[in-house]
Amino acid sequence: MILKLTRPLVFLDFETTGLDTQKDRILELAFVRLLPDGTREALVQRINPGVEVSKGATKVTGIHTLDACGLFWGPPLKKVGQKLVDFLGDSDIAGFNQINYDIPLWLAECKRNGIAFDMKGRHQVDVKVIFNQKENWDRFLMGPRNLGAAVRHYCGRELEGAHSAEADTQATVDVLLAQLARYPELPRDVAGLSDFCMRNSEKNRDDEPAAKVGGAGA
Question: What is the pLDDT of residues 196-208, one digit of tens each?
């Protein structure tokens, strides 16, 4: 595998009630664990947010408040928190805009629900930061620089099942591997990629957070 892993790298994606990382809640999540041998393991979980889903989020995800807060959607986050933390283990973290969006939201949700999770010692690889830094992009001609655009650009296909957390997360893995194949100058190891992403993440807030709701998966 082109990416050198010394421990698992978990890619994550959340569908949420809105854009506020401190106030909005998770509706659905997917964790995809990429192992050093290149195999993948997925965990997908629907979450009852306990609050209304914003109209904007419903328009993007198709998830309505009556569904998300109903009996047949999923449990509150507190009920499944330990299962999620166990899956994350001591892994590093990756995603599409997770540095500025998913991780702040996840940490706020953990604090709100009494879930013990610590980012200390974990590297972060943000596929969107790499996309932003390595490619010039005319938004007028080419549209938003979101995950759908990244899948087309790097993988040569359309993103199927956009705004399904698992589809978005699996696609993010594919995009990162394609980025590494395209840019030989990028570090091959997670620590080096994390340093690249953290140094450049503050430069990439120009179209946030709209690109996240438009999606990771638009």
Answer: 999 999 765 555 4
